[in-house]
Amino acid sequence: MRPPGPTVPSAASSSSYSQREPRPENPLLLLPSSRVTKLSLGCPLLDRLLSGGLPAASVTEIAGESATGKTQLCLQLALLAPQSPLSASSLFLYSDLPFPLHRLRRLAPKSRPDILDHVLVAAAHSPTDLLSLLARAQRLLANPGRSPHRLPIRLILLDSVASLFRADFDASPADLRRRSALFFQISAKLKELAYRHQCVVVVTNQVMDVVEGDAGNTVAWSSGRRVSPALGIAWANCVNTRLFLTREVDGDGASGGARRRMKVAFAPHLPDRSCEFVIRRDGVFGVEPAER
Amino acid sequence: MAHETPGDDFAYDLRFQVVKVMNQLVMVIRLCQGAQNAWDMLSDEQSQKHTTTGSGDLNDLLGGGIHCKEVTEIGGVPGVGKTQLGIQLAINVQIPVEYGGLGGKAVYIDTEGSFMVERVYQIAEGCIRDILEHFPHSHEKSSSGQKQLQPEHFLVDIYYFRICSYTEQIAVINYLEKFLGEHKDVRIVVIDSVTFHFRQDFEDLALRTRVLSGLSLKLMKIAKTYNLAVVLLNQVTTKFTEGSFQLTLALGDSWSHSCANRVILYWNGNERYACLDKSPSLPVASAPYAVTGKGIRDDLHTNLREVDATEQATIVFLYLNMWHIIHSQINTVIREKQLQGGQLPIGMDNS
Predict the structure, then answer these.
(1) Domain annotation for chain B: domains and CATH numbers
(2) Does A259 map to a domain?
(3) Whole-angstrom Cα distance, residue A159 to residue B82?
(4) Where is this region: Disordered (chain A) (predicted)?
(5) What's the structural domain count of chain A?
(6) A-B interface: how many C-beta pairs under 8 angstroms?
(7) Does the distance separating the beta carbons of B165 and A234 come in below 8 Å?
(8) pLDDT(A15) > 50
(9) ipTM score of complex
(10) Confidence of residue B221 (pLDDT cuts 50, 70, 90)
(11) Cβ separation of A268 and B204 shorter than 8 Å?
């Protein structure tokens, strides 16, 4: 029997890495004290929910209905990254056109007019488009010396992954398989970038209604609807951490608004818990339950 | 029938009666306490060949724990605890022999980036706390050869490989044979997760099947040759069969024949359950478990069985009257012997 031989992968992703003999890493060196591994959200309550912030070398998904604060959070993170210990530029890939430049400008601190220099944006029109963007990003990350005036990119945002898959795919089993294969390709690429360059990767996702099925950790009530993050279980297998943003419509309307909640649906390092938050002009902030 | 001496016969009957009563007592107590605590199980001799999962119920399901020399596949939906269990096993394999563990090291092959060191640290701390609780006379200072009960020492004994593509995965599994030859103290290899990098589009599906079969054969060989446990964490997918979508383990057809044991983790409402789906010797069964701050443990909510008043009264009665019962059993045997006209061994009459 012919022994199996792998074909050389078409994308020049890891050929140079796999030629070296594999070497084990010492987990002690990966402890947070050794390097900066979390990106703070700029709010102590939200940071406490996440045990410090969003982890590097990991893909975090933020899922929620529209207008629950996903894009706002992404913009906030892009502006926080250069000022945080991570000291990084961000790459903002958007598929929901147009890019919210106006909101970004409004959120930017007046004291740092140069901060927008550290936010790179690119539009992704389709899954294959995204893959070629990620290949370009890989070259950019591997050669930081090319643009010395800009901080190294250590934050990658994708807003949103669901919009990429809206067109071109119907519900036939063959198309769903094709779609799933793309999820894994995109996720593998994002995770590789995250690991090799110690980046924080954030992907936003929309939700879809679910009628039945068991609860577990992926279903929640939002705006009176029972919803679950889009793209199904296949995509759920592609992210490390899932944060669920929900909106509860207040019965009495006394506070004049909806209660918003950020919930940890699953994470390898966090217990299942949630935190209330509000969306203000200057960003997304956690609030204590008593506060309104 | 020939007996050596009348005494042998008698002694056998007596021992038998005592043992019978003791067994019944232990059984009733256990029944009311719920399933055996994971730490109690570590004192069994058999523990040398198993790695405890941290949950007594899970260990029971698996026949003592994860078996060495065998490949175990563990699958489940995202968030149900696969990585948590993988990390728990990588820690528990290191429990020193004097505390009932294997005293080995672990290889952890991370294909998805789920290995968060702060969580591994937490789980190591939880394990050490439990050791110190059950063995209160142990010290954190090490004597010669004994592992120091510090989380850092548990972390450093995990050989961690992070791989980013299927070619790297093949390379590292090929490399394992050489690595394990040089590190004979490894007793568990965890791959988290085994199919992630194979779920992209492969132009040649036949190639993928060949590669996966080759990998699975290699892993089986490694388990047997180096007398260690191989644990493969797998994802769940929806498969379109017979007109409907069903949940199955990813790439099941290429994989399923090579794993001796298969465990499916699933949600039952808000509780986590494990189902032993395939095993060379154990029946299909389910057991609950929990993911706590300390790691994988028993699900205490389902263990608090309602002990009814009669059972409670029986336990108390048996416990208080244990010696009386044994004594009366002895007397019964003595009387029977006397009735039969047999000889009693010297010193046995009425004392």
Answers:
(1) 48-133+147-322 (3.40.50.300)
(2) yes
(3) 28
(4) 1-28
(5) 1
(6) 155
(7) no
(8) no
(9) 0.87
(10) very high
(11) no
